[in-house]
């Protein structure tokens, strides 16, 4: 059981407190309900660039990091398609420093020109490091643009291309701040060696007078149901052929989200899972294989990806994956398999809760989903799932017309066949 | 309330940092057990550390292959059955192989420990290393190495180690694609016999422990033919390369280069070590470091730049590492040297001194709050043949560091001629 107490300030800021006096530190976590899905299609990568700018000084404080470090604190942040999360951990005695820093940047940024110029470059280097200068680095962007034609999940958090980041202006920054960075669009979690009374007082003192701002109703263009299978072959300077296939799945708030989560575990959770055992160990078609889902708030994707053993034809590899899926759809799973993936889920949750920063972030995310108590009740949802439900949900997902398939082939291996496309 | 004024803080120098002591136990065969009981969740981590690292192998890749394949089949269980037993209980069994040691790690809900230990015992007594498992291992290792070799950061890491320690030193060597093929079952089975069946072993366990954990461990591992390690660290002198400057082209389409600047450096036993860790923090050990402030936050040449002292037992190195835009790699190098010189020539301000001290102490405080973090600190101390005075001396070194001391240390260790520099595009 993870204890928590929730209250809301007059300006709409939601505050959640989790006290655990066994640790000497506190974590202060601020989640803003804005991610790359909120971006303009011609200005992608902005939510993440903005996250960088949040460290470039606020209205009354020149830089964010130094005062926190003097107080013995550490911090970081991350942006997802759905939200942006900032957190810091510091000695419990110095908790007020975190309130001072976090409230000032929610009040107003400094909007420094220099900071924008530098962080544009930093983010471009981040883009290059993770998505260009790396074999297979551009695959996730390719897959998303195949699967989504309308919904903003069609681009990655880092952005569609370098140009969008290079073109960001200070006016964009100001507009974005005004629209999304205000109390009614944020969730504050304080976790660790702290009392509810202490947090109430500090939250009121530092965040209470920040203007409510626009209360955003997030509406996203709905992705039209996919009617036919999409396929693409591309060639790149990589050493191995790789196979990718993805299917549309359900949003976070849908009960089938949990079922889908278990399905991915059946296919590739651990060394005894189906795809690894059959396709890597027994048939020796893939040297690595994975099945995962995007974990998104909105309707996400389930993906199967694998690198082929050299010499194996990609059609044969795909056929073997599809055979596993057909077997699953025909016979479902055994009681023991279901037991196994439920145990795995229970254990994974327990390990995740070991860290205070994880607990704080989870509380914020559950509140964003709409029910902070999920932190204690979610396991029950998993435990109730039946083999029959797994099969039914599997049938909904694994329809060929719901899928996008990408053959990502080594231009070295396939020197003679590259008529269609040459990318990367 | 004036938002321009920072709230008062408790100085981290006043924190009393304590490393929670371990409980010591011993199995019938003398294998030591170090236990830390802490944490709120019903989980635990068990590590069996064998002195089965790569320094013991006669042929490249054998130590790693033995460690990897130890769970791929015993006389009683197939690889699949072993995997299924761990997966069924939601447990994770991992293996990792380093230079001196090779480790088997179990993460499990505490309630399942008793059911999983017999499977580990089976792996440590009856592994058979089936031929087809070795074949798959070789093929998949080669493929994964092929992908890694295309990444400039991987190649840079491999080359800088080679320059620092020499190609034949265990810290400087790396396996080539064609060498993977030469690993044989005979090599592996022999290595298993010498370093696992008759090996030296130490056990580290942390988390919420069942009352009878020591009895359970003794029942499963106490009768094995294992010995207590001596924890003595032997000297393996490095053979650094003559040439100091390297530019390598690995990928003609690269848009970034991997930059490494590095020098040989002693280990934890050396009197300069604890202070060097403090000096390193100024240089590139945290987000506010000199390198990060200048090269990322001022110039935007990189997404991140760090410096660190490698975690080796017998000899070590001090390394600066970053990936920077292709056209700004050379300017990045220039700025790295500029920052090294600045630490030599300018006294660190009292403000920065205090900031770094507080940051480091706060970070240690944050790092002491979980059982796995505590046991990791102990493991590092014990395996390096040290005791808790090392931890307390490190704290003392931070609290008492002075700008003069930092400058003297920089003058001693930041001589340009001592550094290797490498860019891999």
Structural overview:
- The complex is a heterodimer of chains A (about 425) and B (about 425).
- Chain A has 15 helices and eleven strands.
- Chain A is an alpha+beta fold.
- Chain A has a six-stranded mixed sheet with strand order 1-2-6-3-5-4, sandwiched between helices.
- In chain A, helix 3 runs parallel beside helix 8.
- The longest helix of chain A has 20 residues.
- In chain B, helix 9 packs across helix 15 and helix 11 packs across helix 15.
- The model of chain B has no long low-confidence stretch (mean pLDDT about 95).
- The chains are: A alpha+beta (about 425), B alpha+beta (about 425).
- The interface between A and B is large, with 82 and 73 residues.
In summary, what is this structure?
The complex is a heterodimer of chains A (424) and B (425). By secondary structure, chain A is α+β, with helices and mostly antiparallel strands.
Question: Which SSEs are present, and which pair or pack?
Answer:
The complex is a heterodimer of chains A (424) and B (425).
Chain A: E1 5-8, E2 14-19, E3 25-32, H1 46-53, H2 65-70, E4 74-79, E5 84-91, H3 95-107, H4 113-132, H5 139-147, H6 162-166, H7 170-180, E6 186-192, H8 196-207, E7 230-236, E8 242-248, H9 256-268, H10 274-282, E9 286-293, E10 301-308, H11 314-331, H12 335-352, H13 356-369, H14 374-384, H15 387-397, E11 403-410
Helix pairs in contact in A: 3-8, 9-15
Chain B: E1 23-26, E2 32-37, E3 43-50, H1 62-69, H2 79-88, E4 92-97, E5 102-109, H3 113-126, H4 131-148, H5 152-165, H6 177-180, H7 185-197, E6 201-207, H8 213-221, E7 245-248, E8 256-265, H9 273-285, H10 290-298, E9 302-309, E10 316-325, H11 329-345, H12 350-366, H13 371-383, H14 388-400, H15 403-413, E11 420-424
Parallel strand pairs in B: 2-6, 7-11
Antiparallel strand pairs in B: 1-2, 3-5, 3-6, 4-5, 8-10, 8-11, 9-10
């Amino acid at each position: 059981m993870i204890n928590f107490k929730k209250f809301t300030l007059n300006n709409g800021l939601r505050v959640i407190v989790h006290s655990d006096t066994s640790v000497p530190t506190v974590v202060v976590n601020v989640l803003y309900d804005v991610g790359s899905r909120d971006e303009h299609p011609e200005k992608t990568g902005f939510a993440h660039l903005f996250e960088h700018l949040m460290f470039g000084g606020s209205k009354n404080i020149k830089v964010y990091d130094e005062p926190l470090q003097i107080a013995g604190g550490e911090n970081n942040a991350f942006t997802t398609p759905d939200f942006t999360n900032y957190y810091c951990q510091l000695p419990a005695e110095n908790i007020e420093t975190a309130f001072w820093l976090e409230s000032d940047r929610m009040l107003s940024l400094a909007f420094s020109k220099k900071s924008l110029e530098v962080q544009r470059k930093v983010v471009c280097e981040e883009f290059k490091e993770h998505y260009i200068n790396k074999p297979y680095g551009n695959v996730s962007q390719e897959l998303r643009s195949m699967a989504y034609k309308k919904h903003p999940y069609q681009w990655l958090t880092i952005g569609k291309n370098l140009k969008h980041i290079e073109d960001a202006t200070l006016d964009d920054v100001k507009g974005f701040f005004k629209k999304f960075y205000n109390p009614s669009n944020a969730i504050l979690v304080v976790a660790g060696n702290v009392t509810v009374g202490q947090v109430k007082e500090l939250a009121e003192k530092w965040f209470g007078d920040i203007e409510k701002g626009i209360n955003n109703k997030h509406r996203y263009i709905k992705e039209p149901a996919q009617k036919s299978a999409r396929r693409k072959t591309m060639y790149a300077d990589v050493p191995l052929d790789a196979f990718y296939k993805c299917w549309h799945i359900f949003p976070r708030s849908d009960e089938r989200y949990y079922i889908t989560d278990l399905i991915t575990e059946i296919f590739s959770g651990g060394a005894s899972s189906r795809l690894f055992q059959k396709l890597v160990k027994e048939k020796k078609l893939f040297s690595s294989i994975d099945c995962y889902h995007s974990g998104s708030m909105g309707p996400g994707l389930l993906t199967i990806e694998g690198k082929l053993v050299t010499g194996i034809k990609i059609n044969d590899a795909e056929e073997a994956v599809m055979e596993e899926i057909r077997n699953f759809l025909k016979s479902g799973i055994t009681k023991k398999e279901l037991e196994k993936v439920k145990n795995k889920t229970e254990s994974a949750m327990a390990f995740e809760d070991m860290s205070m920063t994880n607990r704080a972030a989870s509380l914020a995310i559950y509140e964003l989903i709409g029910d902070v108590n999920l932190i204690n009740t979610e396991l029950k949802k998993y435990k109730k799932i039946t083999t029959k439900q797994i099969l039914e949900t599997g049938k909904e997902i694994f329809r060929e017309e719901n899928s996008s398939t990408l053959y990502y082939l080594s231009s070295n291996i396939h020197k003679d066949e590259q008529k269609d496309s040459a990318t990367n | 309330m004036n938002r321009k004024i920072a709230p008062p803080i408790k100085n981290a120098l006043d924190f009393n940092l304590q490393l929670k002591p371990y409980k010591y136990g011993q199995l019938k065969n003398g294998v030591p057990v170090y236990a830390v009981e802490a944490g709120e969740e019903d989980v635990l981590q068990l590590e069996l550390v064998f002195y089965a690292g790569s320094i013991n192998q006669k042929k490249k890749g054998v130590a790693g292959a033995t460690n990897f394949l130890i769970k791929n089949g015993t006389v009683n269980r197939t690889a699949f059955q072993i995997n299924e037993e761990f997966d069924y209980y939601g447990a994770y069994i991992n293996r990792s192989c380093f230079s001196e040691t090779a480790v088997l790690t179990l993460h499990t809900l505490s309630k399942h420990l008793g059911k999983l230990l017999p499977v580990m015992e089976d792996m440590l007594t009856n592994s058979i290393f089936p031929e087809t498992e070795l074949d798959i291992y070789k093929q998949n290792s080669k493929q994964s190495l092929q992908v890694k070799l295309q990444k400039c950061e991987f190649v840079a890491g491999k080359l800088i180690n080679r320059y620092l320690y020499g190609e034949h030193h265990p810290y400087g060597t790396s396996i080539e694609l064609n060498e993977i093929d030469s690993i044989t079952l005979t090599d592996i089975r022999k290595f298993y016999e010498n370093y696992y069946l008759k090996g030296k072993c130490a056990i580290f366990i942390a988390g919420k422990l069942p009352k009878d954990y020591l009895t359970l461990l003794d029942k499963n591992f106490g009768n094995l033919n294992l010995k207590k390690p001596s924890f003595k660290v032997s000297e393996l002198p490095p053979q650094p390369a003559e040439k100091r400057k390297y530019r390598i082209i690995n990928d003609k389409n690269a848009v970034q280069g991997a930059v490494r600047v590095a020098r040989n450096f002693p280990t934890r036993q050396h009197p300069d070590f604890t202070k060097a860790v403090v000096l390193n923090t100024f240089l590139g050990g945290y987000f506010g470091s000199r390198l990060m402030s200048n090269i990322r936050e001022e110039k935007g040449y990189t997404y991140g730049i760090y410096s660190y002292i490698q975690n080796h037992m017998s000899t070590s190195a001090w390394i600066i590492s970053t990936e920077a835009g292709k056209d700004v790699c050379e300017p990045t190098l220039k700025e790295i040297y500029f920052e090294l010189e600045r630490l030599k020539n300018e006294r660190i301000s009292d403000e920065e001194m205090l900031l770094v001290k507080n940051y480091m102490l706060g970070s240690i405080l944050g790092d002491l709050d979980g059982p796995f973090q505590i046991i990791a600190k102990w493991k590092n101390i014990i395996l390096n043949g040290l005791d808790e005075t090392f931890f307390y001396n490190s704290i003392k070194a931070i609290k008492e560091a002075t700008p003069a001391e930092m400058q003297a240390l920089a003058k001693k260790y930041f001589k340009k001629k001592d550094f290797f520099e490498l860019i891999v595009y």
